[in-house]
Amino acid sequence: MTQDELKKQVAQEAIKYIKNVPVVGVGTGSTVNFFIEMLADHKADIEGAVSSSEATTQRLKNIGIPVLDLNSVGDIEVYIDGADEVDPRKKLIKGGGGALTREKIIAAASRKFVCIADETKCVDVLGKFPLPIEVIPMARSYVAREMVKMGGQPVWREDYYTDNGNEILDVHNLEILDPIAMEKTINNIVGVVTVGIFAMRDADVVLIGKGDRVEVME
Ligand code: 5RP
Fold this sequence. Notes:
The protein is an alpha/beta fold.
């Protein structure tokens, strides 16, 4: 199977998790885009969706799914989103698509976070994928220096702005042995909006597309 076929396989499996769910949280990225395509066949079953990015909002609107404001829906039953890396304890790196802040907010406000990933995303230790950090623009160089002190090699995602008007540093060379501790440490650096480690609020379920089957990590 190609990677896209694995993404489709796992997106299809995620549809099972939105049965009887009025409002679905929807993440961002190519795996989620397959899920959104499939959601079109189920739109009569849901009231609407809370979106994690402008790109996802556009796709949801294109297929006629109402996009709801998180402030008006309260807690979300189920949130479906992809990941850049998944470790054996369901801790994640996210933010390759730049939507990490809104993704983290929706994950926090959701009862069940179902992460959909293909097998290429599985790692023993997080950090081979460069860690995205959303920063307030004026703090970019300061945060970069702090990341160098932690052993990372930050690379500015040049000419890129998040949906919140901020910038992204992609930090290479980190070996994230304690994801919760590192998430807290980076969160505490002044100027950091969001770090792409999803460990304090990790996934409740990870579906891994493996071609012959979908593995369910619970
Ligand atoms: C976006 C994300 C995505 O979930 C992550 O980048 C995975 O994307 P894809 O499904 O395209 O591999 O965190 O901010």
